[in-house]
Amino acid sequence: MGTKFEGFPNVIYAQQFSRIFLEKYFLPLTDEMQVLFENRGCELLRGKRMISFFYQPSTRTRMSFEMAMDYLGGKVVFSTENAREFSSGAKGETLMDTINVINRYRPDVIVIRYDHKIGAELAAKVSHVPIINAGDRKPGQHPTQALLDWRTIFKHRGEIDGLKIAMVGDLDKGRTVRSLSYLLGKFKGVKIYFVSPPNTRMGSDVKRYLRRHNVEFTESTDLRKIAPLVDVVYQTRAQTECGTIINRKHGYFIVDKTILDLMRTDAIIMHPLPRVDEITVEVDSDPRAVYLTKQIDSGLFTRMALLKMILSPKS
Amino acid sequence: MGTKFEGFPNVIYAQQFSRIFLEKYFLPLTDEMQVLFENRGCELLRGKRMISFFYQPSTRTRMSFEMAMDYLGGKVVFSTENAREFSSGAKGETLMDTINVINRYRPDVIVIRYDHKIGAELAAKVSHVPIINAGDRKPGQHPTQALLDWRTIFKHRGEIDGLKIAMVGDLDKGRTVRSLSYLLGKFKGVKIYFVSPPNTRMGSDVKRYLRRHNVEFTESTDLRKIAPLVDVVYQTRAQTECGTIINRKHGYFIVDKTILDLMRTDAIIMHPLPRVDEITVEVDSDPRAVYLTKQIDSGLFTRMALLKMILSPKS
Amino acid sequence: MGTKFEGFPNVIYAQQFSRIFLEKYFLPLTDEMQVLFENRGCELLRGKRMISFFYQPSTRTRMSFEMAMDYLGGKVVFSTENAREFSSGAKGETLMDTINVINRYRPDVIVIRYDHKIGAELAAKVSHVPIINAGDRKPGQHPTQALLDWRTIFKHRGEIDGLKIAMVGDLDKGRTVRSLSYLLGKFKGVKIYFVSPPNTRMGSDVKRYLRRHNVEFTESTDLRKIAPLVDVVYQTRAQTECGTIINRKHGYFIVDKTILDLMRTDAIIMHPLPRVDEITVEVDSDPRAVYLTKQIDSGLFTRMALLKMILSPKS
């Protein structure tokens, strides 16, 4: 199975995964993981050691990974959100020192969140232990989020080809929409509607990638015009406290009752969380809202599947 | 047993517990927990998962809960004191998002310390997983502290009825004295002597509750007058660095050799810790000082008992 | 075996260990630990409980201790780098309160990093549970670092007698060079070359100790003159961001290609990490550089050996 997993055993970029891998190997494995979870866990990774090494707090992502390890019977032998303390000085160099040091303790996998862009990539270059990128910095990637988003959509639609998706909000800073865009480039007939204020448009690197992979995209400042057209509204967080207020001056970006009424009945609403007020609370109880339910579950099953593939590829 | 435990399986307020529950079920169970502890633990909660979710550091309380879980054979699957990072924005709403997310991972219990008043209550409203309030914000509650204080007093006196207790210090900000006052309202003939500077008097909400429950109380600014009268001197921490110095201008609030000499020989001195200088070190070796010994032990047995009740009510 | 271990079961100062202990008991035990590590761990300390109690973040040291505990089958039941929160106020007093509280939970060992000099010593005075000093504050000690440095040198040279070692950098603030100097005072014919700017020379307390123990030492500001003479170049971190730049004005303290070319072929280069730029990256691949390899390994085996001695002295 591992032979199909390009770039393995490291998980660094969303685009390292092929369509074949995603559909034939990854997806069924996440479903197996769901069964293990519903059975309250297993001992598959007994004796395996994970280190969570976060250069900035990300309680949500760290919890998802550590719960995934626990449900598989593995152990989180060391966990920190204070890793920045290690790196007092010349940044890139010290990251390599750090990864070298951690390697000497021979854990079975390192989950890293770095506060600079190329952290996980650099780490994987020097590490003999598999590296999982739990998010790097802006604009960076968050490949496990892309995988879980991908799975959420696939489980809902049964396929990705022909997907129409709106990505809304601070698109230039959002790791999640960047990583998901890269992943969608693997599929056919996908159309992305970027909806953002003019000052937070999707980066040109991603747009070049989409053009190269024949992914159609448009840019807009009014979610009301886009909402009726799409299978998925993927909302993202305003990265500054006053971000949403500023946004309102330049267009319409909030998912609320108005948008719900415009959306198709078979569409879904996603959000990587945490949410501020860019999705109003009234939306939560709508059956199309999956950000507090199926999307979270997909995150757990996705991380379980990755850990299983990396730490026990044969079983 | 669980049927007697009002509000179960959540532990939110001190006053949710009935007298019957406390005396007939809770107290004997804490004694059983002491035996388990002295036997160096057990496997009663094997396979059970606790999440410690703290919005502010509280090393002391977190340690007590996590040690309790360990002595029962359960597992702390995730622990953070950085939870505030989750809540970037509209506070109450995001707490509910957070609790919803944690619920998807299906832990068996969530221990939460929140930095706003109604945190645990809100959490319990949306959570399908039992919530234990490990302290919320000012003026808030700290029900497990109230239970351990209650147990400490009960184990010493053999009953609560007729108790005379001095509560000393920053009474308006102290969660512990607030929660303990609520709990004492369940008993007969209790008299509370509040001793504090005029500007940190006990809140009127608590006083109204005490009147409604026929608990006698007085207010004073001189501990020397009160010390000879009471079974318990319950000292609290000056919440500001210079607090105690300010206090001294307005009365006498320090527990020292002078107070020791005035106290009854069968009285005890309690403190929720951490202490600054409101109890002088010379007091520590007095047999009446229980804040570094029996009160800590009661904290462990209390949290073990609560976890046992919530996670293994039948065994 | 424990009878030979002066000061046991606490590990507070580098100088508490005798030469006999180090050579006859400690060193062979670290080699046994290496075998256990290479076998991916054991269950020797099953049921034993360690508490990591750090008053300041030290991800590196904490990781080494917690991995050591894990490879021996013991459990880290509580871990914090936020312990400072405990100590809101009168420092020394509150540390004693804290240690008293932790003792009530009856862990089997407490690993403490304190932010004041005499922390571990104070802790050991009140604790019934063994204390391991994981570094105290400036100028303080870091005895487990001294032991691991000692082992690294011993494994390389086969003995310590006759050692010529350069200690380079901010010597007045560096705990590690202080602790190592104390330890080297136990051996014969050792010569230490202190190389530092005039304003960061080794403290007079250490120099007095060395004179008393007949350890020869010199002071210099040019590593190029010293490098050809020594078995070990022990580099330390510039403690301020701009420290190294300042240093360059006052002499020559960087380990780079120039120094490599001057050093003997059988010498080694050590560093306690984290490194800033006082060793250039080009040095890393030289076989004499052990700071990212054998020195790290020695740290793990040293901490495993200490934990084994303290927690399972008979086995």
CATH architecture of the largest domain in chain A: 3-Layer(aba) Sandwich
CATH superfamily of the largest domain in chain A: Aspartate/ornithine carbamoyltransferase
What share of residues of chain A is helical?
25-40%
- Give the oligomeric state: homotrimer
Largest protein interface, residues of each chain? A-B, 26 and 26 residues
Give the C-level CATH assignment of the largest domain in chain A: Alpha Beta
Mean pLDDT of chain A: 90
Strand order of the largest sheet of chain A: 7-6-5-8-9
Fold-level CATH name of the largest domain in chain A: Rossmann fold
**Element string of chain A (H = helix, E = strand):** HEHEHEHEHEHEHEHEHHEH
